[in-house]
Write a structure and sequence with these properties.
mainly alpha, 0% strand
Length: 97
């Protein structure tokens, strides 16, 4: 198989409706939302790392851009109060690709 990266990206976009990088971000943000709600003892840094972001600031910026919600609170803990950020019906794949 000798397919170019641009051809594979084109096929991926046709199948999934977005680029591979946008798809990956969507998956990561969906995972982050689940962790924020279901693992209240984890820090924002830990959640970011579990989602593939080793820079907490970058994770926070991407999260806010993707979801429209801020992930950070003083102390950096993902408290149970965050459940109000993502009502049950909103815990989906965030925005579509």
């Amino acid at each position: 198989m000798n397919y170019s990266p641009s051809y594979l990206t084109k096929i991926f976009c046709q199948v999934y409706g977005c680029t591979p990088s946008k798809y990956l971000i969507t998956l990561r943000m969906s995972h982050a939302q689940r962790l924020l709600v279901h693992e209240p003892g984890l820090s924002v840094k830990q959640i970011g790392e579990m989602c593939g972001y080793h820079d907490q600031g970058y994770f926070s910026r991407i999260f806010k851009k993707h979801t429209g919600k801020s992930v950070g609170i003083p102390g950096g803990k993902a408290l149970k109060a965050r459940q109000g950020l993502f009502p049950a019906g909103l815990l989906t794949r965030s925005r579509a690709c």
